[in-house]
Amino acid sequence: MLVAGGLAACGADAKLVDGKGEEPPPESAAQLTVSPETGTEEAPVSTEIGVEVEAGEVTEVVLQPEGGEPVEGELRPDGTSWVPSSPLEYETTYTAAVTAVDADEIPVTTETTFTTMASPGNQMFASIWNGSEYEYGQATPIMLDFPREFSVPEEERANVERRLFVKSDPPQPGAWHWFSGNHLEYRPQEYWQPGTVIEVRAAIGGMPLGGGVYGEADITQTVHISGTARSVEVSNETKQMVAMENGEVVKTMPISLGKDSSPSYSGTMIVMEKLAETVFDTTNEPGCNGEEDGEDCYITDIQWAQRLTWSGQFIHSAPWSVGDQGVRNVSHGCVNASPADSEWIFNFTRVGDPVIVTGTGVELPYGDGFTAYDLSWEEFLEGSYLEPPDTTQTDDD
């Protein structure tokens, strides 16, 4: 009787859950899977926290080493993984707790614990060509190089590309192009907008690069694009060089291009380096036998030289051909201009400015210089191992 009375006193609608008068929390509809799997050992220090979620979205990722502080990082834009902001520590155990919520904001959390590998013996350093101390022209590609003796295997190139992060302000989607297994260039669809600031992170520290080789360290760089858009147009038809600024003609100058036996290339080239004084020495080229002999084997002091190709085409001062400039082609492939005009254009341009040469009948060879913009956007994308970027977005999206 005492027991029955006790039950009646609870009320007809009362519920008893686990011995407590409380409802269990509702289950989230979100289904969450994370990687690497719990218990994974020998994980690279470039490991990302993979995320697969159904009927929900990820709201938080906390990655923490045993006894240490949480690691900084962020989700990829496509939400497929969470990327640490720097390489993890070698021989360290980490726990990742990933939280997602469903449409009703009900959370679910999944954890995984893994241990990273020991520091590998075969590590490879890479470098970003662009520096932060210089304002580049609008056609500057971001360039990443591995040592010449190393080539990233084709089956690893998509993985490498996914670890190369480029953010620009204002936003301009772009892509990477592999000119070889050790040289990549990145560009947007059109030239960089004036004043663009580009943040680059090659997150390859501890990353497997193929063939038992690992990246030595992450590389970061900030690249600045000039606030003024400048370009140079060179016409074989008119024998004139035109300096453009923000789409307007600034100065027109007579020039001489390459003669028939050594024609200039046509294409979109980029100012690669600027040398106020240098020496052109062709005596080591085939047929010269290390000696000055005739007009094609020479050692000559040159002023106001701007390199356009690796093979040796420049804009430069040529006082010996002033009488030919604007009339006929007499150079060995370079753009010859008067001393005064060469100095003027030297001071006008920056490394990274485009130089568009037309009408010579000989196309610029692939990869002879910074040739990213000599390719159409479609051709450029063919050199990437990832899906093309979405170039339809605007700053208001």
TrEMBL record:
Residues 12-44 are annotated as: Disordered. It comes from the Bacteria. The active site is at residues 316, 334. GO terms for biological process: cell wall organization; peptidoglycan-protein cross-linking; regulation of cell shape. The keyword Transferase applies. Residues 230-358 form the L,D-TPase catalytic domain. Pathway: Cell wall biogenesis; peptidoglycan biosynthesis. GO terms for molecular function: acyltransferase activity; peptidoglycan L,D-transpeptidase activity. GO terms for cellular component: extracellular region. Keywords: Acyltransferase, Cell shape, Cell wall biogenesis/degradation, Lipoprotein, Peptidoglycan synthesis, Transferase. InterPro entries: Big_10, LD-transpeptidase, LD_TPept_cat_dom, Transpep_catalytic_dom. The keyword Transferase applies. PANTHER family: L,D-TRANSPEPTIDASE, L,D-TRANSPEPTIDASE YCIB-RELATED. This is Lipoprotein-anchoring transpeptidase ErfK/SrfK.
